[in-house]
Records
---
Amino acid sequence: MKKITLYLLGIIVTIVVGTYFYLSCCSYCGIITQKEAPKEKIVSKPPLPKTTSYPFDFSDGDFAYTTQDNFNFKTSTFDYLEPVSENVRNGILPGLKNHLTSNEQKVMNITGYYTSDEHNSSAFPNLGLARANAVKNYFVSQEIPSSQINIGAKLMDDMVPDKAIYKGPIGYSIEEVSANAEDKIKALYDKITGDPLILYFDTAEASINPSAEQRQKIADIAQYLDKVEKAKCQIVGYTDSQGSRKTNMRLGQERADFAKDYLMQNGISDNRIKADSKGPKDPIASNNTKEGRAKNRRTVITIK
């Protein structure tokens, strides 16, 4: 009996001691493991910038109109998305048209917004001006005189697109015609005719890639045509003296027509442009040298 008791006591002691060491060691191991286990870093994503949206909004004394709809544009483009909102159309006709018709000394200013990281494929110095010009042409299609519309541009690098679409990157205001408006038009005429836009072409080619200075001249021409109803944009294509006269007359016309199409694609109306060819006539340099012939292969764009 004594042996059985001692045997049972040994079993109990073994269980107690084993339990003690198990709890002590495993708890310690658990602590070590918990301390040594790398903590997962929680990286918080910065909040997405809020999409910008500009209303179709203008006022002049008691006359005012506003709607959250506006002309929208894809990024890096200057053609507004269609269809134009009904709310925008309702603001133009009859309200804005009647207001400007009744107040001939008032002008609508249309300002196009753009960002510095957009690609400008227009004929204008920047996408803002190209967008404003596109909207201006829509206004003109709604029988608002272009002579009562001014266009401008504003760099807006804080604009945020909605899925690659800028919502309403156009601003509007109405003001009095400036007192020296006629003097400005005369100065613009002198500027264009005194230093006409000249585009140069490679041999037998008819393509253009205007520089920043040339784009500004195109903008000046578009502005003058807007303000002077009977004015025309005159395009004349020239060639060097290489080849037959018939071929050169055709090539000069192709170059003039190419320039005309380019201007039309950028919002200058077909009926405001006249394109002709003079072929090898009226050279501005000697055709006996490579450099001289390069200067003679040109298209001259001015106004008349």
Note: The first strand starts at residue 56 and ends at 60.
---
Amino acid sequence: MGFVFAFMPLYALGMLGMPRRSQKYFEPVYLPYTIVAMIGALLITGALICMVIQLVVSVRERHATNVFVGDPWDGRTLEWSVSAPPPEYNFATLPKVDDRDAFYVDKCNGRAYHAPDTYEPITLPANSPLGPVTCMTMVATGFALTWHIWWLAVLGILVFAGGVIARSFNRHTEQTISADEVRDIETRWLKTVHETAPVPVEAEFSNLNRGRAAGALK
């Protein structure tokens, strides 16, 4: 709603001939649209404030609101079938999907939260600083090109190019999580799952909810 109220009036103002960076916001023909855009901007600001508050509360009360089991709302799809936060590899074994709501069907049939017969090593892409470097250098380069700060633009392009070249010489592009480590992580999580009491729907929004909704569990 904030986005619509903030930006849709700007299209109308453009059609009315209002130029960018204008000093004529209070022209009678423009004023109704600028007021609506301001209301939209306030809505967006309020949403951002709510997001910051949620982040602060989530960090401050992280122990009271912990949902490590990972299924606080009786989820249906596979993203709810792992711990929260999820492990680096997401799924210890490749899920078998026979239904659109695979996790919900597994819970209904008593197949959820069971350890596989064996675990195997999992190979993942190795961590790399190239992503953050690219982000920061391209932001700096774009800013510099917009405002004609040529030294910063050249520096940003050089650092970005240097990062790409340095990355091309890196032969360690993968990391492997051993089967024993995967087993330890999954065993600790499944132990927590079975020790956590399922909560009914009426308690899902309370601190009794540790990430295991009763729902379809049998």
Note: The first strand starts at residue 122 and ends at 125.
---
Amino acid sequence: MLIDKAPGFCPGAFTFGCVYLSGYTLHPMSYTANFRFYGSLNDFLRPRQRHTTFSYTFAAHQTVKDMIEAMGVPHVEVRDVLVNGEKVSFSHRLLPDDQVEVYTYENGEETLLSGIAERRFVLDVHLGSLARALRMLGFDTVYGQHLHDPELVRISIEEKRILLTRDVNLLKHKAIPAGYWLRSQQTEAQLLEVLTKYKLADLFRPFTRCMVCNGRIVPVDKQQVLELLPPKTQLYFDEFYQCQQCRRVYWKGSHYERMQELIRRIKEKERYS
């Protein structure tokens, strides 16, 4: 313990963990280790910590996971942690002057997603446009404005879904099987991030899921949905699809052409990313 002279009562002793003893305040012993983060993990760090080795002061009780997340990096984006060249678990405790290297999952998502082969997602409340885009491409995507953080975590764990979010702290829940923090705030850029990270370009199944509710879309006879169609649609279109869950009807109008163009742009960008 480090001991500092204290002239009297230690205010907030129970709140902050300091101990008053015969006019002295006792503080937990602290140590220093050296960290370096690689790849996209640098996005979470302060500018002066990026792409370089820096010192970090820690307490004896802290685990590697505690330290990494205290620096702002969610554990779900970390592939490996090496201490003095040896791979360690998140529960590992450091010694003074340890050299720590932290690596991301770049080009290693197959290992990360070993139990999530179908690439299924759950998205936070801020990612409605991205949810619709993923559904448009055929990916099973859970989204709802009523889903708050505890429910998102539960769905991710129980259904083994990849949690996509703009909230870094949400990804720090220890039981989340897989997750990713969206760097961009623009929908098409976000979609490209997800497609590139999880290598989804060859898994597209466009127009097989409802963009509104995530249900399956199947072909349907025009006469079965005739009463649900606008007058001009009844006149000019004959091929229709219907969501098996919410019964919403789809047809290949101008929106279909815009979606096709978006898919073309995304595939082109993904090919060169």
Note: DSSP finds nine helices and 15 strands in the chain.
---
Amino acid sequence: MLSIIERLTESGSLTLEGLSGELRVSPATIRRDLADLEDQQLLRRTHGGARLIEVGHDIEIELPVQLKDGQFREAKRLIARATARLIRPGRHVVAIGGGTTTTEVARLLSTRHDFTIVTNSLTTATQLAARPTLRVIMTGGVMRPHSHELVGVLAENTFQAINIGTAVLGVDGMTAVRGATTHDETEARTNGAMVGHAQRVIVVADGSKIGRVTLASVAGIDRIDDLVTDSSADVGELEAIRAAGTRVHIADSP
């Protein structure tokens, strides 16, 4: 299904026959995938094909977490490993937001001892649930189906009640001027509460997110201590981020 969205993003509309030929799957399979994507409001089916939903020239469609997981997988693994190395061992409170890269960071931290993990991500909590060496705190809140995150006042209150050593934040966009941004304003407020009560903030973002600005602001560049990205990130934007005082780490090897 990710391939369908990628092709639609490039062309705006596609035919059933064309998709079937390009992806080498049957028309029946394409019809099922198009129906699923339409249910998620990611496209609109047309007679004989599909088109993107019009959301405005400067607004991007937010992919569900199950589709995001397949994008830039190797880069995300490298970023997660580099991030885990930045977090010191020993007794420590780590807040982890939602996202496919942050989930991989959580997996790598799952063997640590004396860690308290605070998260509003159902995916991350599930990843850590069976680890006896960790203390896991799950926020309350309303679940966002796209990201499997708990957001809203209950989640914000949990983050505000805890003293966080390190916050690991996934974002949809990161620039020197706009800082960290995401697609949803409620999610942005919840992540902002996490950032506001952290001594150190690490943003994890693959290169496609660098230089991108999305709808809602999470944190200004002055609140972000470290950015971990990969070598595909825009070099000029990384230099601007460094100049603003954020440490930049390039994860380009295992």
Note: The first strand starts at residue 13 and ends at 15.
